[in-house]
Design brief:
By secondary structure, this protein is mainly α. About 35% of the residues lie in helices and about 5% in strands. It has a two-stranded antiparallel ribbon with strand order 1-2.
Length: about 110
């Protein structure tokens, strides 16, 4: 294989800038999500690279689906329990600490 030819058996990879264009976001955001391991990526000598399957998985990760229209409200949102606060107990009096400068000077 000469230097001008690419290996056809290897998958095509995309740069963070190309992925950012596809996602309509910034290149910094794509790199930050990869750095925090929130999206799939390949690490190569030139930084982060993404395959077509990575990009499809990123779309699935970022996808938001609408709520079910015909579900009953009791199934979708569990009832919250209310906590009972007792006002019979005396309140604790708080005291301020001395500033750090005053502690270091003494």
């Amino acid at each position: 294989m000469t230097s001008g030819q690419k290996n056809q058996s290897l998958p095509l990879t995309y740069s963070p800038a190309e992925v950012a264009d596809a996602l309509d976001c910034s290149e910094w955001w794509v790199k930050e999500q990869a750095r925090r391991r929130r999206i799939p990526f390949l690490r190569s000598g030139s930084g982060y690279r993404f395959t077509r399957t990575h990009i499809e998985e990123i779309f699935h990760i970022l996808e938001e689906r609408p709520d079910q229209v015909n579900t009953s409200e009791s199934k979708s949102t569990p009832a919250r329990r209310r906590t009972v606060v007792s006002f019979d107990a005396p309140a604790v009096q708080l005291r301020a600490r001395r500033p750090r400068r005053a502690q270091n000077a003494a």
